[in-house]
Amino acid sequence: MGYIMLGAPGAGKGTQAMALSKEFHIPHISTGDIFRMHIQQQTDLGKKAKEYMDQGLLVPDELVVDLIKDRLAQEDCKEGFILDGFPRTIVQAEALDEVLQELNIPLKTVINVEVPDEKIITRMAGRRVCNHCGGTYHMKYNPPKKEGICDQCQSSLIQRKDDQEETVQKRLQVYHDQTKPLIQYYKDKKILLTVDGTKSVETVTKNMIEALGESA
Ligand code: ADP
Ligand code: AMP
Q1: pLDDT above 90 for 199
Q2: pLDDT tens per residue, range 14-30
Q3: 126 in a structural domain
Q4: Domain of residue 182, CATH code
Q5: Counting beta carbons within 10 angstroms of the beta carbon of residue 74, is it exposed (0 to 12), middle (13 to 18) or buried (19 or more)?
Q6: Residue 72 and residue 83: Cα distance in Å, rounded?
Q7: Which of 59, 123, 209, 215 has the CA that lies 20 to 30 A from 39?
Q8: Are strands 28-30 and 81-84 parallel, antiparallel or unpaired?
Q9: Residue 138: inside a domain
Q10: Is the Cβ atom of 36 under 6 angstroms away from ligand 2?
Q11: What is the reported pLDDT for 170?
Q12: Is 24 a domain residue?
């Protein structure tokens, strides 16, 4: 079964996708994490993606769609997957429909994590991430056990370059213009589940898993 985490940048998609991945034993696939890995490894794709990411813009659809096609065709996705940060445009959503049809994997639920814009800036300012395993923390709301160190793999935590306030404002605008229409797209397909993302991390996880159980 396929799941998608939808929501504004900083809504908590990655945080909740990780929890769901542990609960359902299916892979968490973050296109942002994949791009950041390519940037770290200085691949051609990484160099191209960085130009857009640093400005808070979306990477062109064709690059992202090719990447996700390859990823979903891998063996570990056969039983299901959780997409985080993909799709982000209607063109990507339509391409995903085609890919899943070819792979014969149904899309079960699209989880829309709802958080108002005012809360996003503080979330992004305090976000710290692990470049090694993708762990995500917040200095105040979800701190690691040891300051600056990832709980899961003990690597150092960093602040993402695109979490500066100016870039976050741009990313929010891009979300409203290009990604928000996906809410209606999946509402029409009757697979949208909206959760209140303003509650604590644990409460959002609990509410989401309960609601998914009810819709099973
Ligand atoms: P996204 O993947 O949607 O960009 P993240 O999962 O990275 O968002 O979360 C953004 C920031 O907000 C992180 O610092 C994370 O620790 C924090 N965060 C996530 N969920 C919550 C929550 N329910 N309450 C408070 N902070 C949260
Ligand atoms: P994220 O880690 O999901 O916040 O993504 C970080 C950045 O990666 C975004 O601001 C985009 O520049 C790029 N990106 C990630 N996923 C996509 C996508 N599906 N389509 C276009 N760009 C993406």
Answers
A1: yes
A2: 999 999 999 999 999 99
A3: no
A4: 3.40.50.300
A5: exposed
A6: 10
A7: 123
A8: parallel
A9: no
A10: no
A11: 96
A12: yes
